[in-house]
Amino acid sequence: MSGTLWVALTMAAVGAVVLTYQHRRHLARVQRDRAALFEHATDVLEQCRVVPRGLEFPLMYGRFEGRDVRVEPVVDALALRTVPVLRLIVTMREHIPGQPSLSVLSNETGNEFYSGHRDLLRWRDPAWPKWVSVACDPDGVDRELADAAVGLVTEDAAVKQVLVTERGVRCVVRGAQANSTAYRVTRRADLSEARVTAEDLYKAVTMIDGLCDQAAGLNSRRPVAVSEAESL
Fold this sequence. Notes:
With about 230 residues, this protein is α+β, with helices and mostly antiparallel strands. Helices cover about 30% and strands about 30% of the residues. The protein has one domain (about 35-230).
């Protein structure tokens, strides 16, 4: 083996080791950053536990006012927007027997992969803003509950969706936005500094808890007629 070839092979081996080391450091940093997403919000829920998911953002579980809560982060990069957004799917469990599904979605684009909105029938009403999309089961839902859900979406720009089912209430809220400068240069969503604040999480679970109370307390339901709902 010539000296030149030996040097080339040695340099290639060293380069591979360096690249592997740098890649592992990068993965470790990403995992560490994402695992810290809820570090400022763990006191909001009782019996709170954060479940790491490797390179994915962690899940959070706990209880609020006696109800089970699950918080799942999802990266929304499909919407027609400049910068991807980290959304939080906050689910509060409540047994509401016979409750028809109701979904209220803000600024629908058709790319809301997390919503399940398109599986329901559209309900249009001139009293609601045009940028709010309301959908429900064919049997219809209580108008008072629908108005309350629409109000949550229209009164807070951070709320993307409210979903009510017989298993409880789910709310999709904005958790963080990617670094706009880095995204415009690399077209990659940099959410390494994303952190959920205690204030934002408390606001979300309080809002959902109130809607759970309202849905569970509606004994006499006044469903809309099926004719008022249009198929998607």
